[in-house]
Each structure stands twice: as structure tokens, then as C-alpha cells.
Fold these 3 entries.
Entry 1:
Amino acid sequence: MLELRNISYQVEDNIEILKDINLTIGDGFTAITGPNGGGKSTLAKIVAGILTPTSGRIILDGEDITGLSITERARKGVSFAFQQPVRFKGLTVKDLLTIAAGKDTSINEACDILSSVGLCARDYINRELNSSLSGGELKRIEIAMIIARQTKLSIFDEPEAGIDLWSFNSLISVFENLHKKINGSIVIISHQERILKTADRIVVISGGVVEREGSRFEIYDDLINDTDPQICAKLKEEV
Amino acid sequence: MNKFEENLLAEIADIHGTPEGAYNIRVNGKAGGRASSANIEIVSKEDKPGIDIIIKPGTKNESVHIPVIISESGLKDLVYNDFYIGEDADVVIVAGCGIHNCGDQDSAHDGIHTFHVGRNAKVKYIEKHVGDSDASGGNIMNPQTICYLEEGAYLEMNTSQIRGINSTIRVTEGTLADNSTFIVQEKIMTTGEQFAKTDFNVKLNGRNSSTNVVSRSVARDNSRQEFISNIEGNNECSGHSECDAIIMDRAIVTAQPSLTAASVDASLIHEAAIGKIAGEQLVKLMTLGMTEEEAEEQIVNGFLK
């Protein structure tokens, strides 16, 4: 379980990106949605340790991890799939899956993971993560790395972005299978209706605050029918 | 050979015990073992130090190893090795030099290799340079690789120098006839106060000749690197050179790629990039559980793999 207590994040000129966020994320799927620039990705980076909050505490399974480094949090079981995957000259897909798994990954294991994200493993296992891969391919490999890690908290920042031809049913089944394996928390930052429909809980972050949160049943219909132009226009556009 | 020499031989040429096929091992400026094969003849030069390696036309799937080991501190070794690769041959040539310097004087090896690659012959040339030092003596290597490619010839050169060479000036030249191809992949890492200069000069004289010169390097500590390349397009041809360097600590890297076109049908491109390890790469590997130092090593090792 992840608890965020009074998380605030300010940048230069005292601009507040996040304002006193209080949130508890339990096991199962949590979808975080809301307009662009609302603070969703910033919050994810704060949980992963990439950004340091101006104030507030981050508690993972009862342990205060606020002062821990990115590496220490990763080793405690925090995984984070970037919205924009990173390219590496010289490192292959298998290298990165091995690093992610924390142990030597057999060809069969690597192939199973790649197949689950819709990549023909044989064609990719020895490819470098360089500019020869498309954005969509990199995105799937980014997701594959999180699957390889199988940690208790997995955060995906807009996993659907850039994946055009891959059906969302496959993407959703990836998350469902991951949940069966880890039996932990999966947090998905998304604008996609079909991902929101799958979530156990939905959190709406807008203007740096938690505007609303609750079960899918409590939030989803309100969100789709919302007349608030700031949230609704963006969501409908994305859907 | 002692244990140090055997280890160096294994590292630079993957030789354990007696190598298969044709070979010539040079240890401290003297013959350390030689064998010719039915198709590959190795003979000593009469007028200067070095050997001629003569590969018969049509020789297929054979290899020749010509490593050099230096373990005497203060030795200055100069050697001329000429390769004559017959038409339609398809061979692998493994060279390389390892220096173990346990004294206070500089040890040096200058290997001048000239390749005459016959019509439609195919050569893969692997060259690895490494050095170790127990004392203050430096290790110096100044290799020259001069390549003449006849019509339809193909030469792929994989060269690496990633440890223990204090100073190096590496000169590589290619002269290409019609339909020939010259590929170079270079990997270099310098540390401490080391200096490495690479100088490529490729003349695309033949119609449909092509070259691709790719250098990846990592400069650490106070080391200095210079990358110079010039591709001349004198006919309908294509040439590409790429210098990609990671700079760390207080290192200095210079890249000077240049192109000269003397034909309107020459298609020439150069790329040069020097930069530190991207912060986002370190962060990504740290989110996978690596420390910053482990991530840095992983990125460098992958880059030079």
C-alpha cells in the first residue's frame, strides 16, 4: 500500500505543481487521470524518487521512503514505466530485461515477456534500444521491463501513448496478468476510457490537487458526463 | 611464454595453447611460433622486420592469427606486416598487441599493416590492443593500417583499444576500386592521463565503392582523444563517417570529420557527437535497481560492446 501525505511540489518562482496531495493507493488497479499539466506525471516521479517533494511524506507498506534514493526505492519494490522511454546505444532488449529482472533472464523468459506486450520476441531480443526502434516499439519494451521486475508497486505513465496498432485488450490483459503475479498495486496514468473502465479506483488530479477519487463506479460516469470544461473536454478528446 | 604473456594472448587474439590454422606469434620482437597452412603462407621479410601473409585465391572459411606480445620494459618494436589476399578468398584475420610493462621505461609497438585485398575477396580483420603496467613505464602503440581494395573486394575492420595504452596514434587508410566496400568499427576508451588519436583517410576512387567508418569512444579522467576522418568521393560512391564520444570527468575530446567530393555522384555524410552520459539514461537504470555508479558502468560497457 502506498500513502502520500501532504505532498507538495514547487518549482521556481514559487509555482506550485502539486498542492497538499493526500492519497492512499491500495492493491489492485488505480487509474490516475485529469487534464495535461495537472501534476499526474510529477506525482509519479515523486513516488519513484526522480523528483523530491517540497514537503510531505511517502509511505510504502508502512515504511517512510521519502528520504530514499531512486535505487533504494526500486529495490523496495517501486517500478516506474516512463511516458517517454529512454534510448540506449549498445544495450540490447535482453540486456535491459536482465537488468530489470535483477537476474540473468533466459531466452525463453525474455521471449515470454516480449510476446506478452505484442512483440515478436525473435526479432527484438538482440536489438539495441537505439534510434532504429520506433516510439511504439520502445513503449512496449518499457512496459516489458516493468513486467520483468514484478514488484509490489508498478506505475505506468500513459502506457497507451504511441501504441497505435496494438489492441487495448492486449494492453489491459498485460496489466491483469501482472496483477495476478504480483498481487500488489498497479497505478496507470491514462486518459483512455477503456483503461479507466478497468480500474478498481479512479483518481482525478487537476490543477495540482486531487479533485476527486473513489471507486470506478463512483467516478467513471461522473467523469464522462462531467460538464467541467477543463476535465471533460480533454477526456472526451482523448477517448 | 609466462602466465602474463599467455593471458594477454588469450585476451587479444582468443588464443589458448596452439592456435588452429595459420599463425605467427611475435614475442618481445622475436618469433614466438609460426605455422602456415595449405592455403595461407607466412614468410619473413628479408629487408625489414615483419612478415608477408599470402592467402591463395579462393581460400574459404580460414583464419590467420598474428598477435604481438611485449613484456620487456623499454622495448621499442617496429614491424611491417603485408597481407596479400587472393581473388574470391573469404577469410578472418586476427591481429592485436598486448603489452605488459613491469618496468620504468616506456614500451612501444608500431605495427604497420598493409592489406592488398584481391578482386571479390572478403576479409574480416579483428584488431585488439590492450596494456597492463605494474610500474611507471608507459605503453605506446602507433598502428598503421593501409588497405587497397580491388574491384568487388570487401574489408571489415573491427578494432578496439579499451585498456592500458598511454599514448596512441592510429592511422587507417583505404583506397577503393569499383564496387568495393570498406567498413571500420572502432572502440576506444582512455583513462587517467592517456592520449588517443585516430586518423582515417578513405579514398573512394571506384564506381559504386562505399565506406562506413564508425568510431565509438569513452574519454574518462584527464584523458584526451582526437578523432580525424576524411572521406574522398572521387566517383559515383557513398561514404559515411560517424564519431560518437562519451566524455566524462575532465577529459577532452576533439572530432574533426571532413568530406571531399570530386564527383557530382559522390554521396558523403559525416556525423560527430560528443556528450556526457544522458541523465535520463542513468535515471532509467536506477529505477531498475542499479546504483548510479553501476548504471554508469553499464552504459559505458554497452556503448563499447
Entry 2:
Amino acid sequence: MKRLIALVILWLLLLPAAVPAADEYGYPIPGAYEATILGTPGPLKAPRPERMSVRQLFLDISPALRKPDVFFYDEGLRCTLAYQDKKAPLVFLIAGTGADDQSQKALAMMAALYGAGYHVITLPSPTHPNFIINASRSHVPGDLTEDAEDLHRAMELAWDRVKADVEVSEFHLCGYSLGGTHAAFVARLDEERKVFNFRKVLLVNPAVNLFNSVNRIEGLLERIPGGPRKIGAYFNRMLAKVTEFYRRGDYVDIDDNLLYAVYKAHLFSHDESGGLIGLSFRISLAGLIFSSDVMTNSGYVVPKNRVLGATDPLGDYFRVAVHLSFLNYFDEYVYPYFRKKRPGLDRSAYIASLGLRSIEGYLKASPKFGAMTNEDDFILVKEEVDYLRGLFGERARIYPRGGHMGNLEYRDNMADFIGFFKQE
Amino acid sequence: MKILLRHAFPFLVAALYLVLSLSGCAATRTSALLPEEPARHTVAEFTDDERVADIADPWEGFNRSMYNFNYRLDKYVFLPVVKGYEFIVPTLAQKGITNFFGNIGELRTLYNSAFQLKGKKFLITFGRFLANSTIGIGGLLDPATQMGLKKQHGDFGQTLGRWNVGAGPYLVLPVLGPNTMRSAGGFAVDAGIRYAAIHTIDPLGNVNHGDVILAGVSTVEAIDMRHRVRFGYYDSGYPFEYDFLRFLYCKWDEMLITK
């Protein structure tokens, strides 16, 4: 019965797709925002291994660090290791903006790689609070060069922790979304340090330039009524829609089935779906801003010198931080911080340094790189998709649709994903 | 992230509470040496917008302490026990145990559906209980779901909501976690009904040490409950996790009473 329902849902999803999908590619969801939110329908997902040997690592990267009481629960940088009981290649996996080592996407990639016989270590994104607190030396994320140094150091520590227990034949590197862009910078750094000598490096839906991509996500909020300053009202309105839909319909659980039903009923317009992506980015960004501000005592959203305890209400800080845009964060916080550190740093030159073009000579010359992305990934413009094609040639796989990461778990994508690491 | 450990028995709660309170859980606060300076951005700037994911929380100080207490209880007691359980008990048996307690739980849904005058829910739940207790071998299997009878939800908190009792303030309970005054009251009533039912029927009346067996069963039930809840306090590492969980819980509670 459950299978039947799943098939019916799938059929309904395929119906609207039948029109634009005049190609061979079988991923069914045509809208970029919708694909990003819904991901891959269950029956089209690549199968996962039944059992995985998994262990969490908590790395004490800076033993001298005194953590503020408000982060009393933090036990060190959390990474997740999946290990084979035989000698195998190991893939380091860097999560995307605001995501940690246990994010759905990271776990999906981990499962696929594990099923194909790899060891995997997933790391949180340098933009995740856990990384900002523990692994970032500046506690100010967003500078790709410094982020890469922090990531590389974390990888060395993770490897140090597990090398007695897992037998590794060679190392690979992978990252998705902003993590893909990070992976390129980490790979370049490792060429100097010669620690892992990654054989293959895969960038999945990477940003070509961090600043531009994030501003495109921010741009999704421009199209909601009242613009980004009214995200609170927008959030409540969208929520009321879902609540009403649930109340009227024959739903019991609040789960994927409800989500697909919401999609099928066209509850949200295209712009509203985009707004939800923008909003979810803002929620991540709020966590980043708050964590960084507490760690650096910059007085950005928390009064300077205020000591927050384990039970202090934080609602007001959230309310402020969620209303701050990436542009606020960049111009008022990141750029001034790095200008102080590197006197004479020019704003537009700094923005240019936050992307793949700044290291394109290296990327073009090295045969170890590959990229996967989609024509309709809204963090890129067409010119940037073409740039990735030019940069990586045949090693760039560009799918006709899937939005930002929506088609990751689709079985053809997962087969290509694994295929890349298997290549000689 | 359904309600945490609804069925954990009071004696277990008391024992754990004692253990944990000895370990000490109040965070100490160091005072700042330097004077505070106002932040660059404050709420005053954003009063023209509605709040995001905001729920009134008059007992926030208590609730946050309890939230942190539950985090430690989970970390030092429940999660190690559940980990051991998952390691020792075969996956198939774990599934059977989950189904078994789920099936007994249908009785709670059943009488609450009656209290709520929800005929369809009552019939579906009755059908589920019947099918799973018989062809489902005493509830170890769940053929009802395969037959298209979806598991329903019913507890006394929902019944109160059905008859227009307000949710009341948000309340984080020890062990049980996020609640509202209404769901906490409902939980107490359901627990009372259950206690009375067990002592009236007295299923182990002729067995020696029946109460010990009953306590053992309740312990397994509590372990199964925690095993099923895929949520860990502070696992997200997100600084506003408390606020979001509070919001999600209250929304979920609000949506459930419409069913």
C-alpha cells in the first residue's frame, strides 16, 4: 500500500515534468526552487547500504581555547567517520553553508561512498557554529584562504585520531555547495603541505564566487512582499498556509508525504518557494553571525563585553541576526576584520579573491578536479556554468535541472558521483 | 521529534533525577570585568516586522535549565543505555519491541478518540489494534499499516485541546522534554488512567514478583521510546536550537489538536 502511494505520488510528480523534460535525464522536478526544497523522490533515490560502521569524532583543535558558557554543550569539532574493515581509499567531505557533518546531504554522500567501498570523514562547513567555535582561528568565517587553512588543520587532526584504526590506500576530497569551493582551496593548500596528496577532488554544486552566489540567494528575498525586511511576516504567512493545508487534508504525520502534497497542490508560488530558500539561508546565517560575534566579542549583535550564560534567553539576538543580510555581515564585519589584518585590502579585490577564478591557473592545470552542477542552479549564472565547463572540460558534469543540490540523491547522479572517484 | 519519552515511569524519573542532581548541572556565570557597550544592531531596528518562530515563554529561565538538565540526563544516562540496547538486541527484535509497545499505545488513542468524538479515528485505531494483536502476533508486527490503516495520534492533551482548553505556557519537563501546560496535564491524566487500568486488570496478579516484572517491562518501554526519538539535545550545534524546538513543538501540538 505504501509503495502504491509512493508510486502514485511519483506519477503525479512526473506528469508536470513530462512537458519540459524532453531529454534523457530522468530527474523529475522541473522547478529549480522546488527541486532544491523537495530533493529526490524516495523511489528514485540511489539505494543505501544496509549497515554502516560509523563513529563520531570530537576534535579538540585549540586546547587553550576557553569556550563561553553559552556554548557549554560544545564538545569540540564534530566529524563523522564511516570506516571499512579493510584497506580502502578515504574521502574527506566538506559540508555546505550552515551545514554540519551530519547534514542530510553529507550523510547521503557518505552512504553512497561507503556502499562503494570507501572510508569517509565528513566535516562541518567553516560557516557552521561548531566549526566557528572550535576550528576557526579567527572565528570569522568567509575568507576562503583562511577557511582552507582551518579545514586542512582539522583534517590532519581527524586523520591523526583515526589512522591507527583504519587502513587507507589513498585520499580523495569532496565538498558540496560552498564546501565545493572550499575543497578547491584546500586541495591547493595541500599541494604545498603535501599531507594527503588528494588523488581526486570533486566539487558538487560549488559557488564560483562566494560573494556573488550568496547575494543571489539573498536576492530570492527581494521577491517576497515587502522584501527582506519583512521576512518575519513572510515566514508566518507561509506557515499559516501549511497549517491550514494540513488541517483540511487527510494527513496524520508531518513528513515528506505532506511536503510532496504541498508541492502538488501548488500551495506556494515560484517566488514564494524561492523566498523559503532565502529564509532558510538567513536562519543559518543568524547562527553564524551570533556564534562569531560571541567568540570575537565584537559587539555586533551581542553587546560588547556581555557574558552570556547557559540559560540566558537568546531570542532577541536571533531576531536581530535573522534580519541582517549577508551584505551587512560582509561590509560591517568580515571585510573590516580582514582589512585590519591586511592593510590596504581593496573591497573589490577582496571579493574577487573569494572564488575559483583567483586560483584558476592551478585548477585548470590539475587533472584531479571534477565538478557536478545543474543548468538551473540559482547560485550560479549561465556565464559561471560555462566557466566551470571551460575550467574542467569533460570532468564537469552539468545536468539540465535539479536546482541547488536537489538531484544529488537521484540514482544517475549518485552513479556519476561514485564513478568520478573510481576513474583512474 | 515527537514528544520525548511519554511513558517513562515516575520511579525511573525519580531515580535518574537523584543521580543527575548529584552531578550538579547549574552553569556558573563569570562576571564581566569590562563594562558593556551597546551592540551595533539591536531589536529596536526591526520592530516593524513580525517575529520569526516566536512563542511566548514566561518560564524561560526554568525551561532552559530543564532543557540543559535533559541534555545531561540524555548524555550520561539515556543515550549510553540506548546505545547498549541497540548493540545487544537484534534489529528485528527492536522493531518487534517498538511495534509491541506501539500496539498497547493504541488503547490510549482509542479512548481519547472516544473522548474527542472522533469516529473515523476511533474505527481506524480499533482496526489497527485488532489486526496487529491477532495476525500481527500480539502486536509484534504491524500488518495494519500495510493494509492502509495509518497510525493515528490521540492523547489526553489533544482531548483537552479538542474541547477548547488553551495550550498554556510552554513547559520543559525533566525527562519528558518539550510540553505545554496542556500536554503536561494530559500526560498526567493518561498516566493515571494507565496506572488504574493495570492495577484493575492486574495481569500479573498470580505471578510471583509481578511488580518487578512490570517495572522491567516499563524500563524496556522507556528505552524503546528513547530509541525511537531521533533527536539529541544540542546535536544541531545551532545556537538558537532551544527557540526553534520550542516553536516546532508548539506548532506541532497546535496542528495535532485539529486532528
Entry 3:
Amino acid sequence: MTHELHDITLVVNGRSHPIRVEARRTLADAIREECGLTGTHLGCEHGVCGACTVLLDDQPVRACLMFAVQADGRAIRTVEGLAHGDTLSPLQKAFIEQHALQCGYCTPGFLMLGTAILEQNPDIGDEELIEILSSNLCRCTGYANILRAVRAAAAAMREEGVA
Amino acid sequence: MNAGRLVGRDVARVEDAALIRGRGRFVDDIAPAGLVHVAFLRSPHAHARILRIDVAVARALPGVHAVLLLDDLRPHLTDTRLVVALPSPSYRLDLHRPVLAETEVVHVGEALAVVIAESRYLAEDALALIEVEYEPLPAVADCDNALAPDAPPAHSWASSNLAAEMTVAYGDVEAVFAATPHRFAETLHIHRGGSHSMECRGVVALHDVVEDRLTVWSSTQTPHTAKRLICDLLGMDETRLRVVTPDLGGGFGPKLIFYPEEVVVALAARLLGRPVKWIEDRQEHFVSTTQERDQTWRVELATDAEGHILGVRGDLVHDHGAWTARGVNVPQGAVAAMPLAYVVPAFRMTIRAAVTNKVPVTPVRGAGQPQGVFAMERLLDRAARELGLDRAEIRRRNLVSAEHMPYATPLKTRGGIPVTLDSGDYPRCQQMALDEIGWAGFAERQRVALAEGRYIGIGVANYVEGTGRGPFEHVSVRVEPSGRIMVATGAAAMGQSTRTMLAQIVAEQLGANMANVEVITGDTAAAPIGIGGSNSRQAVLAGSSAHVAALKVREKVLAIAGEMLEVAMGDLEIEDKVVRVKGAPGHSVTLASIARAAAGQPGFVIPGGRGPGLAASEEVVIDAMAYANGTAAAEVEVDIETGAVTITRLVFSHDCGRALHPRIVDGQLMGGIAHGIGNALYEHMRFDDQAQPISTTLADYLLVTATEMPPVRILHMHSPTPLNPLGIKGVGEAGVIPIPAAIAAAVEDALSPFDAHVCRVPLSPVDVIAMIDPVPEGSA
């Protein structure tokens, strides 16, 4: 049983990581182990829980359902790239202010999903927002505060003109 | 109750700064140099004899370091079994599970071999190369059938499937039932599923050959227990082992259990001389992490004509799973919770725990209490219906009231400690929920809806929860020479803000700057003893110890500062990192210099007259549990075409005594409520008749998502308990407890035009349709 190795470059949060992986290596494992960015978490490894959500060319994807070789050269964003230095993103701030995280395990996935929502549709209505947020699972919060946080971040971004 | 400077206020959580940036340190984030990876070979059979295991091909795979069976581990173990059962005279079988299965497997997912390889990918490749010859044996898939006289044994050596039996009783039950014509019997099937923390389990072990010390990072709620068991099993001196609970991605019960994987990974690190990691995947979680499952309650309620409870009796059959991984505490907790909110003069419940060929059952958030509450509340709804009483009114007539407090029940806890309800006003709490949801006007709303062809219903359920199980939790508080305040505890954080809670309580007494407090949880190197996380206990026990320790350190700080500043202690205050004279803030001394003075100098007297060091260690002993209470009221709409249940409103009124951090209390409750909705409508760990699990993905086993969450209104009462100095009761499990009962009642009410009778949870759409149309089309 031999597995050919592939030289690829993962561009994560603007930084290039030249890595050598088997074709079967998942994007999530490569981000966590080869790139050393452990903020992306694995909750189910079958594409349901969304804890591993990252942005690939600005679209939220399940990093457990992609192979690293499929992401070669594409722009990947993870939770580690959300803050600028010490300044948290509006969504990160809102998560803290709204107590939208408890154990924090699902949080990176929700932050990436929420970031995509706010970038693509900052004026999203509640019904659609809830529908999209239902693509990720959280066992601690009961979701209400996550919903509040995304709404609050949207409002803050409108106020600051970020969106 | 008045809030302090920090306690009782929504201060910022100390956990968030790292977690929000993806800088948490969960067990899978720990990757020492030279790490190798583990995968376990798990039984595909629910019950089978192991005839042969051939690992030769797997061992030969490049990149594989070892493939180990129990026989390979045996020379290094003092015992090949995990003897972990809580004490109880009720056991009828010794069911200590093996470190690895050797001659027989008794549930799907039971581990029988371990592969250690350069990567998890390779380790799983090697699993596929292990040849096992099994002889399948009859499997026990159902707890009721398990106890039938002709049932096959779940363990081939066992004479029966009765794991344990016990009776909880007081009062003259037979006389009570004989004397009243008002008797109401129900047979209830209550299922609970797994905990499904978003993070599965994991273990990393690192053997330091220089000092011959082993460090084990485990996703455990009970690191001190894990340390004791690993020391026992590996014959290790305690000074050579450290067990650390890193950040936990949720616990919810099953992570309090000690698992075979923990000792196997620890041993593998010693045998290989390499750091070893095992991370459970979700499919393994479904078949190897403990869960709660099935209970069948055959129960009967006796009342007088006005609905006053005279007695409760019945029996409970509980699915124990294949091994005793904790004890009989789940059915015991279920039965104990059943009568607790009400005045029940006579009570007798028999518990039989049945062995099945399924993963062991141990507590999941709520630990049996949702089931006990479900049974009691279903009986009360039945009695109300048959007696022509309002469902809330029959409860009001029976709830323990404020005038009863403290109310000494005839019950005892599993440790023999009397159950005395310490505080609260249960009828008032119920009334708050009823008022908020508009109980009084509901009948009219229901009539209007029905006229429009909409089926809406309302339900209410009460609970009383034993929280803060003792005897103690260790907390030490130390002011270091830097002026930093170090807090260490045996409590283990699993996402419920434990570090924030302790930092709040300690900083309240020592300068009110939480940023100056460092809290270490779940590390056996930092706390000499500890119990860990379970039973909604850590705020109560660790919080109390932290409070008392902080007061002692405060006293010492002020005594030394008083001598240094030559003023009376009473004239001093601690602000941030300094102690200063009230009204003369310039006249001050830093915590750092006080700590240095307390550390002593050779030949000089330590100021303050209270001995060296600026530290205190506390294990405040609180044996009696603090009883929290609450009421859930739910309104639902049922689509009679599809069987879909929509929860339209949910009100939760509760009393957890003083709230240390109102926002965290709400957060804990909301998480529990979501879990309870799952237990009521969605979460079902399914097995076929050969005990094969058939819901082993999160696509088959449904967790509540954002779309299923109804609007929730939480209402608070604050009756401080006299049992601890902070007046607090636990709240980590409360949310889940009454929800299935309240939703079941609401569904039954919505379907009252069909004379529906809800006697099970979860209620799938299929179950709902079956109540509307008892003989659905196409059924044989």
C-alpha cells in the first residue's frame, strides 16, 4: 500500500505553505498539521457539524470533505486570519459580547460561516440567516446568542461602514 | 441578592480571548515532536466469541510501530479490567470492562486491538489488515427482552442479564393504593441519546525518559480519577504521572468516565518511548463513548378525589449496556428525581438494570433526571385529565411550597445522605412560567386555532434537581512574588466558564482585577486532590472553596499590609494590585511586596503574625446537595399531515439561588434547553434487533440546529441556599431536565381531538402520525 506524495501550496490567510501530502489527506488535516493552524476543528469528519468550516476563495466549505490537493494554490481563510493584530473582527467581538461561545469548539466554524454571510449579504434577513446558520452544529449555546452575535456584527459593520 | 464588584455581574469571560482567535488548546492541538498515532480495532459484532486474531500483516506495514493485543499489554498491567463502579449494594453481576477485549466482544465498538503508526491514516490502513475470526453469538438488543427468562446472556459466562436491582421506598404504599379508587397507571418508554460534545474524546501521552515521568492530556472531566486509575493499572508511583485536562470541546457527562483508551495510550507511550495520540472520530464516538439510552417505566399514581398525591409506585427497567462503566447512578438518579418537586407521602420504585450488548450507559447532561421528571409529569397529566382538573392546578396542589422549606424528604442520596429540599418556592416558580406563556387564556386560543384547522397545544413540567454533589473540590489561592494571583483547582473546565467563575470569586476579595488572576483547572500537578466535573457541582463546590480560600488570603494580605503601613487592617482596601489606606490611596503597598514579605528573609520575622506564604488551600466540605428547581412551559403546533412538531413558545422559570454570572447562567440553561428539545423530538440512538447501531452519523442522529430553536424566555428566582457561603445552586444540567416532559404534554394537548396519549420520547413524526391515525396505511 503506497501513497504517492504531491507537492502543493496551501495559501492560508495570505501566507504560502509549501507542503507535501498524500492525495487522500484532507484539507482540514493539512491545515491543522502541515500548516500548524489548529484553530480549525474537526467535529464529525463527515460534513455535518461544520466545525471545520473555512473559506475557500471566500466561500465557506467543509475542510473535512475536501482533499488538500484540491485546494492547491487557492485562497484559504481560517479563524486565525480574522483578527488584524490585536483588533478582533466585528464578528469576533460580537461573539464575545453576546456570549455566543461556551466551550469554543464549534466557534471557529461558526465564525467563518458568519464571516461569509456578512461579506456576501450584510443585510440578510432573519429567516435566511437562521437557515444558513443551521448548517453548523453547536451543543453548548442553543444558538440564540450566535444568531444575536451575527446580527450585532452586521449592525456594527453598517455603522462603521465596514460592509 | 446584591451583586458584588464582580460576583453576580456579567463580567467578560477569561476563556474567550484565546478561543475566539482559534488559539485554544484542545487535546488534538497537542502535538509533541516525534508524535505517533493510534487507531483502535473495534468489534463489528454486538456479541461474538473471538476465535483468532492475526496481526502479522498489519505489523509488517511500513510506518506501523506496533499492533498490540491484550496479551501484549498484560505484562505491563496490574489488572486487565477497569474497576470503576461506584459503590452500591445493588450489583448482581461484576461487569468490569477489559482494557481490550480478548475472548469475547459484547458490543459494537468494543476495542480489541490497538495500532500505533506514523500517522492516523497509516494506523487505519493497518486496522484493515488485521484478521479477526469471530463466532457471532446471540445479541441482547432490548432492555425489556434482556430480562425475559429465555433471553440469551449478553455475556456468555453470565447466568442472567440482571446487572443490578434495588428498591427505593418509603411510606405504606400498598395501603395508600388500596384505599383510593383514583389510581392512574402508565407504561412509558423513555429514550435518551448521547452527549455529542462537538469535540469527541482524545488522549495524548508523553513519556519523559529523562525524568521518567508520564504526562497524559486527556479529554476527561475527572483528571484526578484518571490519574489514580492509570497509576493503579500501570503500577506507577503517583509522582511519575501528571494528568491534564486541556480545553474541552464540551463534556456533558460521558467525559467523566475513565476509558480503556486512556490507559492504553498511556502505556503505549511508555512502551514505545514516543509521544502517542489517539483522537476519537465521530463514528467511534457513537459506538465507544458512553451514552444514555432506553428506560421502560411501569408506574402508577394514587390520588384523592381532589388530585392530592397519595402515593407513587412502579418499576423501572434500565438499559445498562454491556459493562458497568460508572454504576447504577443513572436509574437511581431518575427515580430520585421523580417525586422530588411534589409532596409524595408514599413511594416505591423498583429498579432493574438490564445488561444489553450495547455501549455502556453512564450519565449524560441531566443524568436520569429528565426521565424521572417525564414519568412523574406524565402521571400528573393523566390524573388531571381523568379527575377533570387543570393540569397546572393539580401540580399547584402538590408542589412543595415555600412554607415547607426546608423540606426533609424520606429519600436519601446514593451516598446515604438525607434529601432535604433546602430553599425555594416551587408554586410561585410555576406561576411565573404560566403567567408568561399565557396559560390561563390558552384554552380559548386553542379553540380559535382548531376552528382554523390548526392543532396547538400547551404543556407544563416541573423539576427539582440535586446539584453540587459533594464532598468537596480543592481550590488553592496564592499571591505570587510578582503580585499575580494563582488559583489552582481539581475542578475541570469543559466549556461552562469554570475559569471565569473562579477568577470572579477570587478577584472579588483580592483587588477585583480578573486579569491579575490566573486559574489552572484540571491539572493533577497543580491540585493535589480533586473530584472534577459532574452533577452540576463545580460552581457550588469549587466556588465555595475558592471563596473561603480567597477570604483567608485576603485576611493575611491585610494583616501584613497593616503592619507594613502601620495602620489597622480595617482601614485598608485592596484595589487591583495594591493595598491602600481607605481615603488615602497614595498610602499603599503592592501585593507583590506583601507576597515578598510573606515569603520571608533568613533571620527576619515575617510581618503580620500569620505565618509564611500568602496562600490558602481549601476543600470546603458540603455533603448535602443544594436543590434547584424550575418549570418549563411549552406551546407547540402539530402538523397533522406530516407529524411535524413546531415549538412556538418556550418559557423556563427557575431558581438556582444566587446567580454568579447571569449571562453564563442563561447560556447554560439555553444549551440544556436545546439538548432537551433534541431529547423530546429528534435524538434517537437506534439499534437493530441484533444490537447493531444504525444511527452512527450526525446525519442519522439529529442534533438540534438553529432552525429548530424556538423563542425561549427565561425567568429567574433567586432563593439562596443556606448550604454554601455563596448561596448558589448548580445550573449546568437544569435546562434539559423538564423539556421532554413539557413538550410531550404540549403535543398530547395539541392532539387532544384525537385522544392522543403520549407515552414515549423522542417523538418522531412517525410517532406523532401513529397517534393521529393509530393504524397507518400500509402497515401490516
